[in-house]
Amino acid sequence: MLAKVNYGYCRVSTSDQNIQQQVELLKSKYQIDKVFAEKQSGKELYNRRQLTLLLDAVESGDTIFVQSLDRLGRNTTDVLELVELLKHKQVELHILELGGVDITSAEGKLIISVLASVATMQREQMLEKQAVGIARAKAETPEKYQGKRQSPKTIKACQDALALLNKGLTKEQASKAVGIGVATLYRFLKSNQSNN
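The structure assignment produced for this chain is given below.
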């Protein structure tokens, strides 16, 4: 029977941040066999090389130790999916800042659910405040408030794409040819229709 392995996962968002502090903290608290560390944004969970390598390495009975939940990711849904994946693989996930609790356990799942609910509430409150601010700005200065505007460079690219559309290219082909996203072209076309 293979010996079970204790892994550490450490992450910082930018290259100028010191990741070694996380590594040393985890090693001072737990018996860590191997550390996966990276300097990568927490926005996209499955676009991180070291995390992917860690998930490939772990086997049933292994344990992963992380300093805090946000080191895993910023997107609550992604983190919950990761917890379920590890639970399915029978891998424990201990979060130091949550008292070292295994969040794949029933107790840990409760904590995660509460944290997810709080995060969702905070996000909704922020969006509500943003909507109130936008409505106030529109009411106070409707001639000035136009929301986010496209740059002159983007507008020029969209106009070039429009010319290509008139020559028979598809929206996808035209947007690719001028170096913009197809969604940007769709917004430009929609905006032009509403202004006409």
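Interim note for the steering committee: DSSP finds eight helices and four strands in the chain. Helices lie at 20-29, 49-57, 69-72, 76-88, 106-140, 152-166, 171-178, 182-195.
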